[in-house]
Design a protein that fits this description.
By secondary structure, the chain is an all-alpha fold. 60% of the residues lie in helices and 3% in strands. It contains six helices and two strands; from the N terminus they run H-H-H-H-H-E-E-H.
């Protein structure tokens, strides 16, 4: 009795076996796979059948993608200006959505204190001749107090 096409091994079908088929999605180069996947995603969105991520799923996907990029060494490394701008945009968006963390006076004081201490350390590294204890003649405690007072004005 002769084997059906499904029963034949890869070698019997002429495929050479061992997963070396020249057919199918998996055998395509990565760029062609991306193109096809992109077309599928666009079609799903047009039909209204695409998966819509909720914020938790999006956050988890971003976390996993960032972790993978760091492991591969392909993650973007922010300089301090880029990080500051990203934080500013994120804070602004969170305030507009109403999801921003609201500091109580104790948290504001602590954040101001830490910020003042970090500024003092950065100043001493940047210019060892400058005083590391303050910025504009204020101590970190004074900065913390000013920060908590500023919070009350909002």
């Amino acid at each position: 009795m002769m084997a059906t096409n499904r029963e034949k091994t890869g070698e019997e079908r002429g495929g050479g076996g061992g997963g070396t088929s020249k057919r199918g999605f998996a055998s395509m180069d990565a760029e062609r796979q991306r193109q096809i996947a992109s077309q599928g995603g666009k079609a799903a969105h047009e039909k209204g059948t695409a998966h819509e991520f909720d914020s938790a799923e999006a956050r988890e996907a971003g976390r996993k993608g960032g972790k993978a990029a760091h492991e591969k060494g392909t993650a973007h490394e922010f300089d301090s200006a880029e990080a500051r701008e990203a934080g500013r945009k994120g804070g602004k968006a969170a305030h507009e959505k109403g999801t921003a963390h609201e500091f109580d006076s104790e948290e504001a004081r602590e954040a101001g204190k830490k910020g003042g201490e970090a500024r003092g350390k950065a100043a001493s590294r940047d210019d060892e001749t400058k005083s590391s204890s303050s910025s504009r003649g204020r101590s970190s405690t004074q900065h913390a107090k000013a920060g908590s007072q500023s919070y009350k004005n909002h």
